User: Fold this.
Amino acid sequence: SILVAFIVCPILFGGFKSVRPNEAIVFTLFGKYYGTLRDAGFFFINPFVSAVAPPPAGAVLAATALGETGANAETSKSNSGIGGVKTARRPLKKMSMKTMTLNNDRQKINDKLGNPVEIGIVVIWKVVDTVLAMFNVDDYVEFLSIQCDSSLRAIVRLYPYDTTEEAEASQGSLRGSSQEICIRLQEEIQSKVAVAGLEIIEARITHLAYAPEIAAAMLQRQQASAIIDARKLIVDGAVGMVEMALEKLSERDVVRLDEERKAAMVSNLLVVLCGNRDAQPIVNSGSLY
Assistant:
């Protein structure tokens, strides 16, 4: 009986499992899916089932999300499959169900007008179906990152960086329609990662700029556009002031001006009002003719 106890007790002891909040354990029995523990607590299950370890990249994120620190976390990270490093020696067998953040690197993508822009995004996501995440894809974290890259390229190519004469304001732009682009980006990524049991909570643009090779030229273009807009405003205001001055002089009968004198007065006023330097008036003590 003691021998039987020594044999049976370790087997039964392997059936005890503890699950913390926002954790899940996926089990298989002789190669077939057996079930998933999602609820937090202490459980006894079939001792012959085996827990399936998440992929190395997912195990590292799970270690960070579940608060694993110290030597265990360093061991998991150093032996993970990220960046071509060796596979974990002791992979975690618990999948994190917490909300996680994927900060995608900046990419150089051509916008709708063919201008190269640098753009980076952050994606807030979580696992909602452990079975799909575990068995439908090899590494759901790497799968998500690749789909984020492809979706970002597909969306950026539909919009110009900024609204110009070639791109009307009704079409939107990367700089001016960020909210619309984020919604479309979230929907695009979600449609591609649903097969992996992932839910995209939010997608946001963290960096947006022209590529370095055209940044200087685009800055000059923006400056020229700003100068033209400012000059248009100045000219509109100057014409209104000249018109008002002529009306006031005529109403109060201060001076009678013929067409030639009006033209000279309008010319002088426009030079003074539209010039970018202070005017230097010349006093004429004689006749205008």
